[in-house]
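Hi R.,

Quick one: here's the Endoglucanase sequence you asked about.
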Amino acid sequence: MKLKKTHVISGVVFAALLGVFIAQSMVSEPMATYTDLPYGYELSYPKQMKVDRSWPGVRTRLCDETTQIDVYYDNFNGTVSDAATYIGYGNRFIENTKDHRVTMNETKTVGGLSVHLLKWERDKLKHVENDKPYYASAEIVKNDKEVYTIAIKSARPITNDEKIVNSFRVIPPQGDKPELGTVTKKAPLKTNLETAEEYRKLFMTDGLKWGIYERSAPGKMNLLHALEQKLDYKFDLLILYKSLSTGFPADDLKNAYDDNRLVQLTLQTMRFGEQNPSVMYDILNGKYDEFFTKYAQDIKAFGHPLLFRLNNEMNGDWVPYSAYHNSKDPELYTEVWKYIYRTFQSQGVDNVLWVWNPNHSSKPEFQWNHPLLYYPGDDYVDVVGLTAYNTGTYYPGEQWSTFDELYAPLYAQYSKWFEQPLMITEFASSSVGGDKVQWVDHMFRDIKKYPKLKAAIWWSHTDFDPDDRPARKYKLDETPEVVERFRQHLQEYK
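And here's the predicted structure, written out as tokens:
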């Protein structure tokens, strides 16, 4: 009995000594200093970490095998009212206490600057290799319009976050801020011959192909056919939206194929009509394994080409797969994308072209929500989609925008960033706040200035306000005048 007791005491002493050793190691952890002259700051970080500046102007990453530290600089310029709004708005995800366990949430002064410190953790995820479920972030307020954000995530509990934050200091900026060049390379297609030929005809030839979202098609084609008769034009592309609430739309896709249409099948990982705060975590924990395996099998059985657009507009807070809802961590989005891609590959799917598609306007418009942070990688994306709407002026703060005002800056960015083909996956103009007929005229004139755009799909429907009143009137056949103007211009594309 005494031997056992002595053994227990020795274990306790050993544990205590080990704790002291670890604490001393943490204190004496070798540190290096990173200086960013264009953005005007410096901070200390663990010396063994590598510095990753591959996306200048978006973030700086310091990382090793277990931990990564991302540093962002935001200058709001009217996107939000002030730094306090940035902090409050950007951290609303912690209201989801089921998935996020907050261990620190406080504001203090560091080096004369106000700093908001937040620490939280979540469950480890089954489908994420080397998952990092421990987080810390610090919003360091330079002034009401300028904020630095340090975002840390790790495979183990974070103990040096305050040390890193306390080392941060603002210095006078020097030099021009860096610009981001090409960030992708077009990878070879992994498709069957029929799909490769569809890709060639759509994206590797001159000219622009047109498509339409008509709500009843391709399930029922009579309304679409009637509209096309008025237009004297047949659309090549259709949009079909599906979610986790529905299975694979085999009958709809057969209707489209029999009518010689290519469908942009848009799968959004949400359940329509429900709140979905846990959906990304649930997917990565295996809850939907059976769903995605069956979906892949059904796509394989369909056999014909599809544009497969997964989780579009992910940089918008209106979808549950945005980082806004998920730990401010866009990599959870890319992990879901890769998981679904791998599932499709495991089932032999070779008839889809993967379409990656942010919205032109990020909401929140913060650097940690930059669209490029959601890019899953060259091997997972075949086509890059652009989406920008002239929303009209129904809601306060919205403005009437021409096609050129929307797409000139977007096209300039995307044609520089991406080697993959570009298409407008959905767009339209409202009639509230301006002349829709004139907008259509100018659109057909100006779209010719963007030769890398290979397809454009008009979203012919209406957005309704919370009282079910028409808010954004996007329908192509809203008036005979709009129909006639489309008819005239589309003749050029026959």
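DSSP finds twelve helices and 20 strands in the chain.

Cheers,
M.
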